[in-house]
């Protein structure tokens, strides 16, 4: 493609312009009004939606069976003078650059990338909000054809308006990328906010216009181009320039033979990739003098020979040929005079020149490498490196000892990047800085909210329209990741993605407890989406129930802990408080760990006492440290209060927060009476599988909670059963999960001003009754009753609060209406069997605050059946009503 064939595209529309951009069009499309208006609109687009479109575009353009890929492979070798094989390598790397995961890594430098959408609790427990700088002009060089799009992507993911001035060396790749983007971006999420165009360096009028209109100019190029754009720049326009750089390698003398060979193999890639045209390409290698020098030279040469077969060079331009030939002839003469060694490629056009020198030598590129032998790496600092300080980029280094000393010394001379051989010309870490700066940081500004109330700046206060758009984009991203897991790939095989609305999400299959149990991480990785190191495994279930294990990545668990902290702050824990973490710890439980980190978010003083020890021991800690807040399970807090009452000790706790189950009014009254608590409230509604789900504000009554909408999405089915999705868990996704609780939506707006949905937690609906230290599982009850010949398998368990204790009623149907049995004797037998075989109502009877266990024997079909299904509601939990 040449300039005549090139189509200028402004904000998704192809312009009827022949040749380079005209002043008239530049004035119109770069006007302050257009750029400002578009910037406001693009800022409203959810970031997850942007990332997903970019990943799909990269996959589209790199699909080997597609038009774009075929055109690139056919035409780019001639345009770039890279071989077909080198272009194929670049296209293999390109989709990796634009995966959602790697795009998020790029954004790591700004903090939590969601801050581009809304205020979020991020660094140093502070609310953060990032906004784009506005409009960015990208001036890119043509030496690495992916570079222009790489720069553009940085502008897009920071939600800026982006104008890409393409290089005269390559009109094709940017054009194909934009065309592929337009094909993917059917809803015009990104394309209305970017343009690709061209004008020559001699067009002074347009350059004058752009230097006054844009908020930033991002320029990659030679010194002349950088100086040119700095000249005459308006006061409002920032310029971020990345001029020519030089990179080299260092091989130390303390290496083993295998390490020498491996380093040579790595450096060969750094020489061959991109024909040394990248700023990070290796042009010189310094090697400390030792018996390994010859081995390194031979190994490097052999690797260059091998790579010449894998990546043959294109026909070099005449100027390049002349320059390399001139260098070879000079070195041949020096070799004849015993001053160097020259090795010319047989399988390719590579050149290895060996000197005894401490100077960095500018290479004619195209696989021309200087091996400079030095006595010590310190000799390099006596050469010309000081004069080249501004031009330093990367040092590929391999050594066994004193690595830090060496790195620190090179930092003094301007080197900003260090890596191992083989990584110089390939970016292995998308979150790393470029030339010492984080590009994304340059293109955003962070909002200073000074001393405004943080509690009133969050997604909780955003309009429902904005939230729904953000949540839908998160769900689409989550579903895209989920289908990488074998289970979800099969489970969602009929689901068409992406979803167009939250209504469509209701058609996604519901995840039941049996799905998680059957695909628990202790049984395999069927629900795992990626390599699962750097993770936690937690259990969901009791010691006698069906244990389910779920996995969180480190980052996911850290984020869930921050979300807990948000709830703690909302409910009233402050930095002035001294708080007891009175959750139990161990046995794969999340609670203690999550609560502890959540408390850190409030800035309070934490006493990590746990509820693992006896109440007497806990009381001694309370007497010693005099906390004013305690966080724990209701049963543990009641047991503690009972012990305090029993031994007549004066301990007062101002605020008490509970979780795991509801606390009855009688229990609250008792605790207030014993501990003098002014506030008794739920600290969260959560589940191991999901993490935090709801939190209370001061205006929530009883079991009312707000949904933590930046962490999860909560629905209810026609029966009022809660269906929950964790928005941020992508390692072991939990999507549309029937959690086992009934809820009721509260339609009236909350007096706290939050727009986050509000619900009342009603009762459990599943196969477990949660108690204080151990639980009742239906499986255990069934196991007991199957050995009692007089009764049928049909039963119902009712649990209700009696003062600060609980009564449990077992309604059990007999096999026959007219059965002949001693009713009292049978009731006692069943009660004994239940207490003997079920720990929660036997050994843990007192600790679970059980008042009475009652057995009611009923004739067949006496227990009420549910609707048309004819099923018995096995558990009726009346503790919450």
From TrEMBL:
UniProt domain AMP-dependent ligase C-terminal: residue ranges: 776-879
Gene3D superfamilies in the cross-refs: 3.30.300.30, N-terminal domain of ligase-like
Record keyword NADP present: yes
Ranges in a coiled coil: none
UniProt keyword terms in alphabetical order: NADP
SUPFAM superfamilies according to UniProt: Acetyl-CoA synthetase-like (SSF56801)
Domain of life: Bacteria
Protein name according to UniProt: AMP-dependent ligase C-terminal domain-containing protein
């Amino acid at each position: 493609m040449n300039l005549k064939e090139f189509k200028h595209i402004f904000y998704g529309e192809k312009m009827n312009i022949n040749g380079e951009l005209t002043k008239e069009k530049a004035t119109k499309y770069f006007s302050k009004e257009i750029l400002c208006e578009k910037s406001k609109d693009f800022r409203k687009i959810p970031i997850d939606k942007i990332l997903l479109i970019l990943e799909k575009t990269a996959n589209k353009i790199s699909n080997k069976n597609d038009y774009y890929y075929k055109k690139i492979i056919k035409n780019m070798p001639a345009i770039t003078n890279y071989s077909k094989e080198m272009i194929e390598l670049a296209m293999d790397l390109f989709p990796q650059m634009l995966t959602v995961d790697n795009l998020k890594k790029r954004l790591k430098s700004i903090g939590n990338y969601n801050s581009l959408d809304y205020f979020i609790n991020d660094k140093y427990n502070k609310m953060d909000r990032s906004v784009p700088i506005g409009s960015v002009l990208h001036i890119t060089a043509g030496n690495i054809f992916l570079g222009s799009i790489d720069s553009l992507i940085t502008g897009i993911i920071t939600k800026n308006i982006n104008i890409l001035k393409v290089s005269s060396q390559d009109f094709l790749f940017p054009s194909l990328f934009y065309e592929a983007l337009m094909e993917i971006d059917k809803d015009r999420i990104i394309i209305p906010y970017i343009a690709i165009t061209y004008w020559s360096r001699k067009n002074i009028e347009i350059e004058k216009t752009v230097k006054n209109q844009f908020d930033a100019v991002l320029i990659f190029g030679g010194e002349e181009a950088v100086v040119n754009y700095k000249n005459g720049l308006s006061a409002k326009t920032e310029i971020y320039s990345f001029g020519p750089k030089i990179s080299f390698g260092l091989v130390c003398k303390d290496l083993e033979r295998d390490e020498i060979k491996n380093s040579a193999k790595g450096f060969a890639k750094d020489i061959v990739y991109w024909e040394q045209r990248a700023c990070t390409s290796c042009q010189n290698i310094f090697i400390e003098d030792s018996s390994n020098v010859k081995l390194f030279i031979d190994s490097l040469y052999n690797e260059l020979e091998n790579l010449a077969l894998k990546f043959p060079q294109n026909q070099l331009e005449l100027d390049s040929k002349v320059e390399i030939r001139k260098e070879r002839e000079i070195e041949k003469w020096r070799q004849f005079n015993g001053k160097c060694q020259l090795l010319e490629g047989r399988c390719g056009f590579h050149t290895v020149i060996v000197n005894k020198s401490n100077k960095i030598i500018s290479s004619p590129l195209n696989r021309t490498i200087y091996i400079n032998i030095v006595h010590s790496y310190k000799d390099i600092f006596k050469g010309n490196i000081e004069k080249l300080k501004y031009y330093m980029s990367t040092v590929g280094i391999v050594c066994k000892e004193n690595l830090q000393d060496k790195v620190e010394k090179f930092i003094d001379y301007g080197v900003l990047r260090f890596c191992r051989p083989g990584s110089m010309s390939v970016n292995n870490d998308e979150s790393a800085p470029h030339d010492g700066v984080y590009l994304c940081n340059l293109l955003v500004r962070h909002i200073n909210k000074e001393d405004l109330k943080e509690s009133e700046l969050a997604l909780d206060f955003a309009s429902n329209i904005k939230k729904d758009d953000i949540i839908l984009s998160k769900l689409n991203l989550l579903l895209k990741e989920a289908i990488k897991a074998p289970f979800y790939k099969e489970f969602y095989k009929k689901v068409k993605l992406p979803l167009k609305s939250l209504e469509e999400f209701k058609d996604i299959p519901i995840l039941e407890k049996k799905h998680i149990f059957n695909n628990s991480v202790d049984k395999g990785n069927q629900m795992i989406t990626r390599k699962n190191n750097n993770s936690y495994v937690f259990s969901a279930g009791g010691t006698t129930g069906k244990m389910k294990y779920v996995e969180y990545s480190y980052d996911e668990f850290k984020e869930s802990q921050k979300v807990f902290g948000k709830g703690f702050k909302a409910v009233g824990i402050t930095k002035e408080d001294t708080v007891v973490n009175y959750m139990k710890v161990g046995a794969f439980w999340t609670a203690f760990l999550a609560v502890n980190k959540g408390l850190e978010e409030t800035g309070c003083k934490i006493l990590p006492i746990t509820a693992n020890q006896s109440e007497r021991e806990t009381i001694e800690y309370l007497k010693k440290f005099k906390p004013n807040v305690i966080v724990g399970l209701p049963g543990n807090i009641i047991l503690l209060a009972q012990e305090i009452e029993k031994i007549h000790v004066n301990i007062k706790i101002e605020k008490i927060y509970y979780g795991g189950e509801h606390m009855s009014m009688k229990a609250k009254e008792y605790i207030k009476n014993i501990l003098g608590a002014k506030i008794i409230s739920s600290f969260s509604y959560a589940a191991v599988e999901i993490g935090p789900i709801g939190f209370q504000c001061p205006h929530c009554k009883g079991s009312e909670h707000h949904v933590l909408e930046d962490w999860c999405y909560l629905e209810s089915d026609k029966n009022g059963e809660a269906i929950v999705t964790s928005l941020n868990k992508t390692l072991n996704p939990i999507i549309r999960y029937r959690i086992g609780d009934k809820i009721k939506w509260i339609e009236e707006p909350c007096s706290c001003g939050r727009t986050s949905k509000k619900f009342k937690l009603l009762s459990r609906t599943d196969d477990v009754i949660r108690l204080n230290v151990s639980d009742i599982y239906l499986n255990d009850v069934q196991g007991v009753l199957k050995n009692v010949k007089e009764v049928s398998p049909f039963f119902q368990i009712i649990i209700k609060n009696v003062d600060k204790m609980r009564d449990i009623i077992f309604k059990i149907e007999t096999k026959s209406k007219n059965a002949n049995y001693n009713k009292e004797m049978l009731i006692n037998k069943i009660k004994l069997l239940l207490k003997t075989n079920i720990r929660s109502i036997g050994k843990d009877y007192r600790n679970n605050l059980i008042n009475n266990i009652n057995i009611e024997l009923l004739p067949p079909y006496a227990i009420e059946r549910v609707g048309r299904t004819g099923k018995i509601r096995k558990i009726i939990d009346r503790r919450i009503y």
